[in-house]
Amino acid sequence: MLDSAGYAHFPRAFESADLLQLLEAHDNGQAGERIANCEPLSDWLSHSPEVAGLLGKIGHVNSRPVRAILFDKGPTTNWVLGWHQDRTICVKKRVETEGYGPFTTKAGLVHVEPPFELIEGMATVRFHLDPVDGSNAPLRIAVGSHKVGKIPAREVEAIARRSDIVACYAEAGDTWAYSTPILHSSERSQSAGQRRRVLQVDFSPDSLKGGLDWLGI
Questions:
Q1: The pTM is what?
Q2: Torsion of the alpha carbons at 147, 114, 61 and 19, rounded to the nearest 10
Q3: Taking the CB of the first residue and of the last residue of the chain, which one, N or C, has fewer CB atoms within 10 A?
Q4: b/e per residue, 159-178, with b = 16+ CB within 10 A?
């Protein structure tokens, strides 16, 4: 389970070649592509023994995949990601609902900030498709920051500085899982020719209110 630190690392948790085959239509070199209406990927995330076993280990056996983003950081797509919490979810359509807002649109998909309690009940899993070392911008996690609650933007940097930091080094086929509200960041890659592809998937056990529905995968 995700303990008080808020994260877990699972080496050799899946076959990266098999997952790359499912993602072939989306592996197009974009910095980040939000994936929707991809039935083969949805089936794998919902029914494969690898993912089911992983969810059992982190205490999310009743959670389902609700959002997927394929990140590709490399020679032509490189960026810095400052310390932050993930606070939005992806929904099928905009329905004004008490406690949900504001709404935004990213890559044509509707996102909304839900009540923070819903974010606290979620888990995020990163499926590594390429090796990640100190040169190609591993994700950094502020240990235990998921227990602080909703953190005002002005306090994010200070809380990260007070926290122990873990760098998420990985081999292809590894997964890192963390409590969705944990503070995280990454630097710009220093590797001139190495891609760093990661499928990041949010899982939730909850339904939405007021006519809102998860977009899904």
A1: 0.95
A2: -100
A3: N
A4: bbeebeebebebebbbbbbb
Contact call for residues 140 and 167 (beta carbons, < 8 A): yes
CA dihedral 58, 64, 67, 71 (to 10 degrees): 40
User: What type of residue is 9?
Assistant: H
CA–CA dist 140, 169 (Å, integer)? 9
pLDDT in tens, 157-215: 999 999 999 999 999 999 999 999 999 999 988 887 788 999 999 999 999 999 999 99
Q: Side by side, which strands form the sheet with 109-112?
A: 89-91, 109-112, 103-106
Q: For residue 1, how many other CB atoms are within 10 A of its CB?
A: 9
In angstroms, rounded to a whole number, what is the distance separating the alpha carbons of residues 17 and 45?
A: 15
| Token pair in block for residue 131 | 């090796």
Q: Which domains does the chain have, with CATH numbers?
A: 7-204 (2.60.120.620)
Asked whether 195 and 122 are in contact (CB, 8 A), the reply is no
**Cα 16–Cα 67–Cα 111 angle in degrees, nearest 5:** 150
- CA nearest neighbour of 121 among 92, 158, 146: 146
Q: What is the rounded CA–CA span in Å between residue 151 and residue 163?
A: 14
Sign of the torsion angle spanned by Cα atoms 54, 173, 67, 141: positive
